[in-house]
Amino acid sequence: MKNIFNFKNNLAMAVIISMILPFLVSAQSINKLQNTMKTASLKKTISDMYETVLNKKQSDQAGKFIDERYIVEFNNQNKPLFDAFPDIHFTLKDIFEEGNKVITVYEWKGIHLHQYKNIAATQKTVTIEGVSVYEFRDGKIVSSTASPDKLSFYQQLGVVPDLLVTKEVSRKNAIYFVDEFQIPSGVYDEFKKRLDYNRNYIRNLKGFLGDEIMQNKDLQSGIFTIITIAVWKDRESLNNAKESVHKEYEKIGFDPAEFSRRLNIKMKRAEYYQAE
């Protein structure tokens, strides 16, 4: 009787599991599908925004892609460039998605028909490469930062002499070294002091092409988000820079891991390169 009872219990349990398991598998599949759809959706939003707002100049459609509280600032950021280069056209070379942020590697081309800041119209056609970072909330862009190749831009306009543009600033094989930091407001000053030290140090290293820093503060949590992008000539330059920085840290007795733990700083790191 005991064996029969156990058999019946086991059989009942097997039936229950067979009924629940498809739902569990289905739920996992749905979660994966939702994550995939979210990534595809953010990338598509950026692609559509570039084509509609930046290329077709349909600013009245900006609300489809950009949070209404950010539209005015977004337009103001682009206005000087768009006024000076009315035929400007962007080409997306690659798009990367990380959490609620999308990073684009782009190229834009346009004719300098009107004054740009203090530079009179030159009638020259320029082609510029760059990287932009977009932050999303509820499916729409709430902040953005652009890091174009400024040296090449001013050189093509004739502001910077050709002699200053050498093979050293070619970005064909460049590596974009991207760090993202989440920093509590109470330790911002200490972190910024360390960051400035690091930036000043790497600027003197061989193969360094340029860097940009962007930041945003969440008004509710007080958390600062800082993104740094350092551009290196090639993989060898980046590897040599990492070794040099490590030696510098040993020299001055700085432990980055302990520093991050003590200040409760969260960090993500990624490396990007331009697509063929």
Report what the structure shows.
With 276 residues, the chain is an alpha+beta fold. It contains 6 helices and 8 strands. The chain has a 4-stranded antiparallel sheet with strand order 1-2-3-4. A 4-stranded antiparallel sheet has the order 6-7-5-8. A hairpin with a 2-residue loop joins strand 1 and strand 2. The longest helix is centred in the first third of the chain and has 54 residues. The radius of gyration is 25 Å and the shape is globular. The N terminus is likely disordered.
Features:
globular, four-stranded antiparallel beta sheet, alpha+beta, 276 residues, disordered N terminus, 6 helices
The residue ranges in which pLDDT falls below 50 over 5 or more consecutive positions are 1-8, 32-37, 162-169
Main sheet? Answer: 4 strands, antiparallel
**Looking across the biggest beta sheet, what order are the strands in?**
1-2-3-4
What sort of overall outline do the alpha carbons produce when their principal axes are compared?
globular
Question: Got a strand count?
Answer: 8
Total DSSP helices: 6
| Helix-strand string | HHEEEEHEHEEHHE
| Strand content bin | 25-35%
Level of helix content?
40-55%
Mean pLDDT: 82
